[in-house]
């Protein structure tokens, strides 16, 4: 194998290799407890907000390494308003959900205006937003906890013990057939798309890569999907929070990889001046990134209050750190212009496994923060060093 291609392949799949090694370590350290069906389910449910926020944060980072520090506070504020709409104002659940998502989007658009058109640094705007919306969360909730009593809302967004897709296929002995069917369908779609993409690239004369590498990766991903779905089937099935995560990943994965708008994010992060000279409205790109972040923060707010079955002024603390960390660990560049939605999901899963593994092992909370910080620093150092070596080589 060519040495250069091997090096490029290693860099491309570094985080996947790390994820496998970390999983093996915690499987050994917890005596296999981390791989129990219930813990796999908890990993998904507890980190649903991370998957959603990290996907939105990726678009901000792509524009040049920019971040949004306000997402945790927006999650809390939007979740609090949704609870007030349903419980205090007695609005229908559907109306409350739409209003909450609309408010999240408006918050994002408000911050996006200052960033995109007034050109105030994103760090300053979103830092102000973090303080403002945390304070407003306390104001609207009056510093109290607001219980969420709507069963429909809680089940729809994945909170509580019975928030799973019903097993309409009639699974027996505690085995959920719907979860298994979802895995089979997902694998079939992935295999068809992978083979079609590979064949089309070969047909059109593009570099499609090694057939062994492409099909080897395909087999590995299919095995992982089926293993997860079998674990879910052995517990209660597919949690509704996972459905929202899958929808977000599919939609934004398509946008970033297959659309003109998606390519604009990478172009702005790669070279904003050249992108502007080519006729692309860079202000609009920034606006879309941060307005969209507000929308996804609103969705994460609904997932959070549904899971907790309450709204509290303290919800959402450090959520922005989890999202930012997942992006950088998942391969997004600190300089912008590089990163993918699948990579971000790998980063989020890695963070989730580290958190859960250390919790099961009884690691002190302070040491957990040390480990997470070290992992994030290592990921960014790897990105910076690899970019520098690549520049020197050229």
From TrEMBL:
It is found in: Cell membrane. The chain crosses the membrane at residues 12-29, 49-82, 94-117, 123-141, 178-199, 211-230, 237-255, 285-306, 327-354. It comes from the Bacteria. Its main location: membrane. Keywords: Cell inner membrane, Cell membrane, Membrane, Sugar transport, Transmembrane, Transmembrane helix, Transport. It is a multi-pass membrane protein. Coiled coil: none annotated. Part of the binding-protein-dependent transport system for D-xylose. Probably responsible for the translocation of the substrate across the membrane. This is Xylose transport system permease protein XylH. The gene is gguB.
